[in-house]
Amino acid sequence: MGKTGSWRVFRPVVDRLKCVKCLRCWVFCPEGVVRREEDGTVSIDYEYCKGCGICAAECKVKAITLVREEGDGGK
Amino acid sequence: MAIKDFPIEEYVLPGSAACPGCPATIALRIVLKALGKKTVMIVPACCTAVIESLYPHTSFNIPVMNIAFEAAAAGAAGVEAALRKLGKNDVTVLAWAGDGGTYDIGLQALSGALERETNFIYICYNNQIYSNTGIQRSGATPYAAWTTTTVGGKKEFRKEMGDIIRAHHIPYSAQTCISYPDDLYNKVKKAKEIEGPKYIEILTPCPPGWRFSMEKTVEMGRLAVETGVWALYECKNDVVTFNGKSRLILENKIKRVPIEEWMRPQGRFKHLFVPKKDVKRIKALEEHIEKIWERYRKYYI
Predict the structure, then answer these.
(1) Domain CATH for A18
(2) Which candidate from B15, B214, B215 shows the least CB-CB separation from A4?
């Protein structure tokens, strides 16, 4: 389909200081766009993230918040 | 295995045509992590054939054969025979079909492949509807659920595929759910090491099909297990073992959560709550689930 980041309405934003490195967001991400960083925390590939919000819903420590996209999404 | 130890390699590539919050891609990501690169996947008509994208693009980083709706297991049997003849014994053959292609349309091919002892893994990702063709009822759709072909709610109860599979007495079969990734991963890993036919069914709650908001996919799977709508178990050489919360429910160590908790967030059950609560039909489904558990307790404790 190409760059599916443009589908997004809400952008998941990771607070890497709150992240406890459990990787639930990584394992449950339907797209596999949660990247594992060297320090064990995660970041998100906005080029492809469709913004379903599963990562934020499943984060036990609320380190991921959904922020409304402004403009043209991931483009 | 702990989540952090799952292989980092991805075989489901980003940019697919899957709906946001799709449970099938969650399941497939974990399954292919467990099976690894040396896997050939046979996909009949189902959501995954769409998720795969149009030629010359593909969302999957492994060889895939697309085949007619009823033929997943037959196609897999052919691929397995060819690989055997070529002496390629280290390749896993995976048939990956939905509940429509398993419970209904692909049942005879599946039964045949199990009976012929084909050395393959058949995985049914069960979202309880024909979702890719537009949410029609299947043999896996629960009682009272709305679909585009059961507008007032389905009148029949769902089929129990696990019982049909166990009647083939294959070396390994299991039921799992995307909400329990370690359970799913371990079961696929176990199946990979066993010779002969293996069957695994994964409950995959579908946001557009079940009519719930897309961030709830994992939660809906968890509630399905906690309410007892779905059971996590495995059957190795005819010995059935229940896993996780389902084991505690089986042994009466915890009580099932009332089924309403699972139904309420789903728009496909809305007509049972609005404008007036349909106590009779909710009770009928609850009693049906209880009857299934009574049967489990009778046979598997």
Answers:
(1) 3.30.70.20
(2) B15
